[in-house]
Amino acid sequence: MFDSTNNNGEANSIPNNPESIDLRVRIGSISLRNPVLLASGTAGYAREFGSLMNWDKIGGIVPKTITVLPRKGNPPPRTVETPCGLLNSIGLDNDGIDYFISSYLPELRKINTAIIPNVAGKSLEEFGELASRLAHEPGITALELNLSCPNVSGGIDFAIDPLLAKKIVNLCTSKCSHPIIAKLTPNITDLLPIIQSVAEAGATAVSIANTFLGMAIDWRKRKPILGNQLGGLSGPAIKPIVLRMVWQMSKVSPIPIIAVGGIGTLDDVMEFLVAGASAVQIGTANFYNPSAATKIVDELPKAIQELGYSSLREVIGVGHQ
Amino acid sequence: MFQRNAKVVQNILIAEKTWLLELECPEIAQKIFPGQFVMLRVKETFDPLLNRAFALYDVCHSPTHHYFGIQIVYVRIGKMTNLLSEIQPGESLDIIGPLGKPFLDSEEYSKNNKLISSDKRYSEIATFIAGGIGQTPFRSWWRFLLGEESYNGKSISKPIEKIYFFWGARAVSFFGRLEDFSSTKIEIFLATEDGSKGFRGRVTDHFFNLFHPQIHPEKSPGLIYACGPEPMLEGLGKWCVSHNLICFLSLESPMACGYGVCNTCVVKIGNPSLWDYQKICVDGPAFLANDIVWDNQSN
Fold first, then answer.
1. 3-state helix/strand/coil string of B32-76
2. What is the pLDDT of residue A145?
3. Exposed/middle/buried for A72, CB within 10 Å: 0-12, 13-18, 19+?
């Protein structure tokens, strides 16, 4: 089991004041002020939030996936709400890497939080190109590889093929010195071979997981609701499944796990930390509650104190002890 | 843009399946402009999960707060509006707003569209065409255009002279608060599908009959603003384009966020051979009919 709990030799005196609880986390070479990140595809490029977000508080943002060329995305309807969940088939609607570097990245650098760009290639070569383009850009904390978007035509899911995933991570780590995070698909029986492959290729961490393939049908119209027919399910509906995955994988993963899937409250975050996640990403909750992430950061110290710890690191994986 | 917890002041039935909800939210009331909308959510529930978009109906004042809150009008149609209709005064809702772009009056429109700046009819007349619950954005808009209310610190420099207000519904029982549109400068034209009030048939046909440029060349609708179901807006938009009338269509779409991060509510803007998706929540909700590429026109 990967262990990122407090091993810096500090005495574990439990502070009386929640403000003195240490929320910092280290994920391999990645340092974050706290483990609460905003998930890719649910936080735009930061500018959209306007005054709705206090960037000084959160651990970081994973902006919306960038591809080599601009993509218009899928035809609407692009999302449909299901009980406690959201199906989406946005289709990587984005302005491409050139525009990201010239327009979005300079703005992202101005906010006071970790920036973890997320990229998706249609091929091994495209992943390499994206990693090269971002390799020397300042102000980037890490790079998240979207190996697992379910909504891109072509149907290639790089995160179901351990060999291909390994090649992609290998290429990206050779082109780019930023720490590499591989975002995996949950649409697979066993995550471990993929995690081992990307770890061997030098990935710093894995994000578990992208959305679950699903669909919705309007039976009266006799057809699927989403313009792309199939979509990815997110939101509270998937949380127990992702929690199970993180619990199982954190016991055996050689690299840290960033949990993403239905996380929107303090309880969710604490559960994933106890299950072994080193950080979490807030996703769909940003849509209906843009202040969810900052509220959780405010509430974390008290919850950690309640467990009798002085730092967040002590909570990570404590469920396995 | 604010995210707030807004206390319900009143939530009353005003027509068949139609409620008027008044919320205490001074900051949003002070900043919101006609054409914009808010996202609302009943707290502590994951089903329904997402916020729902509601157009500003109007702002309201209290003796102590110049801008005290806002009103919205909604139809009980699904999970969220079912919950909303049960909310009692004193309870509170999550609200995000103001969202979207304000409506453009002729002065604002002329800034980027020189062709009409010399045509005084546009600064004197406006026509609203509402289908179903599509009247909601027009209550505050007429009050702005006629100089009765200022929004976000702005009042109209030269109030317009005349508003033609077309409103169509399934039956007379769906017209709620018609008195909210009463003014000596507003002429109201009603249409019902069942003929229980006004013109029997589609509200757009009612409008076409009365304002067809070839039949009534002397009549100008001025700038046209429409809100309603998409098929109605598509038919109206195409008709207006073909008759060289300037028409803004306030589009409705499912939205997951309402503030531009989810990329759900896209519409094709441009022309059939060169278009791009724009977001209804941040680039709209109102678009010029000329700019919208309807799906059956595109590749």
1. CCCCCEEEEECCCCCCCCCCEEEECCEEECCCCCCCCEEEEEEEC
2. 97
3. middle
The C-alpha of A228 sits at a distance from chain B's nearest C-alpha, in angstroms, of 13
Residues B112 and B240 in one domain: yes
Q: Do A51 and B1 touch (CB under 8 A)?
A: yes
Do B113 and B248 sit in the same domain of this protein? yes
* Contact residues, chain B, for A83 at CB < 8 Å: 47
Residues B93 and B133 both lie in one domain: no
Are B247 and B139 contained in the same domain? Answer: yes
Q: For B211-248, how does the pLDDT look when each residue is reduced to its tens digit (9 = 90+)?
A: 998 898 888 999 999 999 999 999 999 999 999 999 99
* B78 assigned to some structural domain: yes
ipTM: 0.94
Q: Model pTM? A: 0.94
Tens of pLDDT, residues B267-292: 999 999 999 999 999 999 999 999 99
**Structural domain contains residue B21:** yes
Q: Which residues of A touch B257 (CB under 8 A)?
A: 286-288, 290
B117 and B247 fall within a common domain: yes
Residue type, A142: A
Claim to verify: residue B147 and residue B195 sit in the same structural domain: yes
- Per the structure block, which two tokens stand in for A76? 């609407």
Domain count, chain B: 2
CA–CA separation, A42 and A51 (whole Å): 16
User: What are the pLDDT digits (tens) for A254-294?
Assistant: 999 999 999 999 999 999 999 999 999 999 999 999 999 99
Residue B45 shares a structural domain with residue B132: no
Confidence of residue A4 (pLDDT cuts 50, 70, 90): very low
CA distance B201 to B166: 12
Domain region containing B22: 2-99
Residues of A identified as active-site: 149
* Residue B63: Cβ within 10 Å count: 6
Chain A residues in contact with B49 (beta carbon < 8 A): 81, 84-86, 235-236, 284, 288
Residue B222 domain-assigned (yes or no): yes
At residue B122 the predicted structure's pLDDT band, cuts being 50, 70 and 90, is confident
The reply to whether CATH 3.20.20.70 applies to domain A14-73+93-215+235-320 is yes
Q: What confidence category does residue A8 fall into, taking pLDDT thresholds of 50, 70 and 90?
A: very low
